[in-house]
Write a structure and sequence with these properties.
ATP binding, zinc, glutamate-tRNA ligase activity, about 35% helix, alpha/beta, Glutamyl-Q tRNA(Asp) synthetase, ligase, three-stranded antiparallel beta sheet
């Protein structure tokens, strides 16, 4: 069956070989009869620049990839996320969290003993039990706040037996509770990675989500959000992260391995594909 796939980088730097691998896998997974889409996950206004956004398109084209226009840019759809946040708030599933990072760390105490989830220590729930009056007063006073999902309640509403399927790992029982009360709207923007990615994959009709194994666990949260919003459940294929000769995964710090620098060094797209093990 032809798939609709996507590559959804956050344009906070130039694309490196790891991105190229991920993008090529997504395009290949769509196949000749499917559709490969590009999405720019640029909700972080301080780190995503116009230069990086343009560079993503230019570098992927140089690699030989193509996609239908227009490219979906998350920063242009903040009102969609706000609507979704309003819906969850109306269902009593979100609560404002005024904590700073420092306060959370102080509350957690000994970080090594604190319960951890896949993304680090769990939020200790400080703001979950604040009274409606205190919340209203602090919001009225202009105190910045994030919105967190009441995970226990969300889990109860979504029911048990949420599953998703990964092409390599097989059927997975969704365990979003491992993450605790995740942030769905950050202090600086009315969304978060988890909310925006889940909604956008549905809006764009993605049927197969390919991405690195570093996001495998996050899929548990996305599956829960799909259930809460009544969204279709796509197929997943989490691929291994590409590592350099030193055994470490490629990252933005590897400037020498950006597609731009390889191109400047006279490396051809075909050579890049060979290096990625894709030819
Ligand atoms: N924007 C995310 C990143 O660059 C990836 C999103 C996804 O593939 O789900 O890490």
């Amino acid at each position: 069956m032809p798939h609709i796939t996507r590559f959804a980088p956050s344009p906070t730097g130039f694309l490196h070989l790891g991105h190229a691998y991920s993008a090529c896998r997504a395009a290949a997974a769509a196949g000749p009869d499917g559709t490969f889409l590009l999405r720019l996950e640029d909700i972080d206004a301080t780190r995503c620049t116009a230069e990086f956004c343009d560079a993503v398109e230019e570098d992927l084209r140089w690699l030989g990839l193509d996609w239908p226009q227009p490219v979906r840019r998350q920063s242009q759809h903040l009102e969609d996320y706000t609507r979704a946040i309003t819906a969850l708030t109306g269902q009593g599933l979100l609560y404002p969290c005024f904590c700073t990072r420092k306060e959370i760390l102080a509350e957690i105490g000994d970080i090594h003993r604190a319960p951890h989830g896949p993304d680090g220590p769990l939020y200790p729930g400080t703001c979950r039990h604040r009274s409606a009056t205190e919340r209203a007063e602090r919001i009225a006073a202009g105190e910045p706040y994030a919105l967190r999902l009441d995970m226990t309640e969300a889990r109860r509403r979504a029911g048990s037996g949420l599953r998703w399927h990964d092409a390599d790992a097989g059927w997975q029982q969704a365990t979003p509770e491992l993450f605790g009360d995740v942030v769905l709207a950050r202090k600086d923007t009315p969304t978060s990675y988890h909310l925006a990615v889940t909604l956008d994959d549905a809006v764009q009709g993605i049927t197969l989500i390919t991405r690195g194994t570093d996001l495998f666990a996050a899929t548990h949260i996305h599956r829960l959000l799909q259930a809460l919003f009544g969204l279709p459940v796509p197929e997943y294929a989490h691929h291994p992260l590409l590592c350099g000769p030193d055994g470490k995964r490629y990252a933005k710090r590897d400037r020498a391995l950006t597609l731009r620098s390889l191109r400047a060094d006279g490396i051809s797209p075909a050579e890049v594909r060979i290096r990625l093990g894709l030819s």
